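queue> holo job accepted (guanosine-5'-triphosphate)
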Amino acid sequence: MSIQYEEPALAGSYSVVDSFPKDFGYGVEEPDIEEESATSGDTKPRILLMGLRRSGKSSIQKVVFHKMSPNETLFLESTNKIYKDDISSTSFVNFQIWDFPGQVDFFDPTFDYEMIFRGTGALIFVIDAQDDYVEALGRLHLTVSRAYRINPEINFEVFIHKVDGLSDDHKIETQRDIHQRANDDLADASLEKLHLSFYLTSIYDHSIFEAFSKVVQKLIPQLPTLENLLNIFISNSGIEKAFLFDVVSKIYIATDSSPVDMQSYELCCDMIDVVIDVSCIYGLRGDGSGSAYDKESLAIIKLNNTTVLYLKEVTKFLALVCILREESFEKKGLIDYNFHCFRKATQEVFEVGSLTQRTGMLQSQSTSPNNSLSNLKFGALNGGVV
Ligand SMILES: Nc1nc2c(ncn2[C@@H]2O[C@H](COP(=O)(O)OP(=O)(O)OP(=O)(O)O)[C@@H](O)[C@H]2O)c(=O)[nH]1
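queue> job finished
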């Protein structure tokens, strides 16, 4: 495997990978699209993480957003008060974890749950699949029914968590049982319209990242446009699969419309890890300043099975990671040109998004990005333009 990695300069000093800055030291010289939206009000919906004590909430947050290794979560202390973790300054995802310790009654009248649920885009409820889940189901019902009455727009997501300890048959049976009981409880309360989505997750594999990706994608109004752009990009560049990644969390916020297989996703996640780790060690300046992920970030990895992995910076938080055959990579010029078009278009998509939000316009497909992208010209494999 050969790695070509372009960095401004190779610094002689080492920094411990674990201690890299959460924002990878990315330059703050120019206000970015995401930064603007962060200051122009809460334009991205909040995601809450709830569940019984020891169900794994803090572990999920630490592994996905703070690069903690799964084994280290064994030493996490129980959260005794409501813990709010805001990662919106380091990630595309405007994410606040409200880690509710099991014994706290968050329906306490002194607790402003109305305010919390009103600003919430998704509520993730974590159920420990290795434990008896009857109490968790009761809590799930109480939480979602209360939240739904305040804000029916919330996406309700149930993570059936810690499934690494379960056999394949047991996993399916547990999911079926939890699905059935939770929906029966909702039917008994005449809440059939409240839709719950279920995911089997574990911090010991990529399932937690995959599940989070799905949760986040539902909250991105620009998703269809991004998918469309990715489809045009890959079909004109001879690329097999492309993911648009939130670099800090390795959540993919969009991909082309060909099916996602876990192996490709894992490969791309691993590439991000390699790039950031190498960059943290060799890419920073002698005094530790500089950035491990910036506008220059680009990496090409050739595998021994004629596959090429290609990573390039799109915005402050996002990177495009592609999988392609070695022979397709011979047209690197075309890929670079099309990438340039894709990058420009993606930035426009988010600009239009934040503009519509700022001016208070309703964001519909007809007002949006597609219109401003109509004069975009990708290079075609046969030499023309599309
Ligand atoms: N096997 C397994 N264990 C996990 C997984 N996720 C978390 N754990 C373990 O579950 C235990 C509890 O995890 P925490 O993240 O502290 O749970 P919590 O929900 O935040 O707990 P409170 O802070 O008490 O509410 C830890 O020992 C973790 O290592 C998983 O996917 N699989």
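queue> The longest helix spans residues 332-358.
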